[in-house]
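FAQ

Q: What does a record look like?
A: Structure on top, sequence underneath. For example:
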């Protein structure tokens, strides 16, 4: 790796180790293997699912009861995440739909990316063959952490983009300038709802929902095209795939990371505290994203102070 990790395989011993409660032994060996794969790589693919945002304070909506603990009004309605992430609400009950997505829009705008994003960005900057991000998250955390938007694939869309429900042909447009007031007691939107700037019809997030035949995939398709072009330059090189917090319930990111690591002869480092299983020969770290990334980063020299609170520019 160039840059900060110039000339290094992983160092003989880490400058920062796991807390006692995280365990040692086999896990430490896996962290060393992950560090060696990253240090020896020419290119980096970062995969991220909902677990990546947990260390920033974002909910992962794991299971109906976890979702209802975060949002009690929906428990009273008997509506879980999957039921609410349905495009029919924009037709049948726009205030309910925008209560759900408007709350998330505000939450994601207020949330600062945790320091694990900075670690990944530093590794990416070391790669002579470049890097790409593939995420199912719609929260825009990578862009807020300073990652080049042209190198991020948001497979399920993004909450900071919108589309028209009237299919007027306006395409995907920014959500900048739109705010949605939400009554916290009912989780319903209050006041004017986002409208299409072209025809005035109700706008909706450019997010792929369950059973969604109306999602406009044009932006995500353009992102995938850029990823495909980059992957063509990676063939024959040494690829590291670092996947953080991608589960099996909606396995989009896991499948892409496994497939690309296999096709390109890369090393997959899967970071997941509950579902770390990997194909033979790959690296499974049963840890949360931030803890694992800090532990891996501790193997590189020169060491970075793990308590450094400096934030990247938004």
């Amino acid at each position: 790796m160039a840059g900060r990790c110039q000339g290094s395989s992983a160092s003989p011993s880490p400058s920062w180790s796991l807390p006692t409660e995280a365990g040692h032994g086999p896990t430490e060996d896996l962290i060393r293997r992950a560090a060696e794969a990253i240090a020896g790589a020419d290119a980096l693919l970062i995969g991220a699912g909902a677990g990546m945002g947990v260390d920033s304070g974002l909910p992962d909506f794991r299971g109906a009861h976890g979702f209802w603990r975060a949002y009690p009004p929906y428990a009273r309605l008997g509506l879980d995440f999957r039921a609410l992430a349905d495009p029919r609400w924009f037709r049948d009950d726009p205030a309910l739909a925008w209560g759900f997505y408007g709350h998330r829009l505000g939450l994601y705008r207020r949330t600062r990316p945790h320091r694990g994003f900075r670690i990944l960005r530093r590794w990416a900057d070391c790669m002579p063959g470049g890097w790409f991000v593939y995420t199912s998250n719609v929260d825009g955390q990578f862009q807020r952490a300073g990652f080049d938007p042209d190198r991020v694939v948001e497979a399920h869309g993004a909450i900071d983009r919108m589309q028209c429900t009237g299919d007027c042909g306006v395409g995907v447009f920014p959500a900048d300038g739109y705010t949605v007031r939400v009554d916290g007691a009912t989780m319903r939107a209050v006041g004017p709802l986002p409208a299409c700037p072209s025809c005035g019809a109700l706008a909706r997030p450019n997010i792929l929902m369950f059973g969604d035949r109306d999602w406009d995939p044009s932006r995500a398709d353009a992102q995938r095209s850029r990823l495909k072009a980059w992957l063509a330059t990676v063939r024959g090189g040494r690829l590291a795939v670092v996947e953080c917090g991608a589960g099996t319930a909606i396995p989009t990111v896991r499948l892409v990371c496994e497939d690309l690591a296999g096709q390109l002869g890369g090393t997959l480092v899967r970071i997941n505290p509950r579902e770390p299983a990997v194909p033979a020969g790959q690296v499974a770290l049963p840890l949360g994203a931030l803890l694992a990334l800090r532990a891996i980063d501790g193997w590189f020299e020169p060491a970075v102070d793990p308590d450094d609170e400096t934030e990247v520019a938004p």
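Q: Is there anything notable about this one?
A: Residues 94-110 form the longest helix (17 residues).
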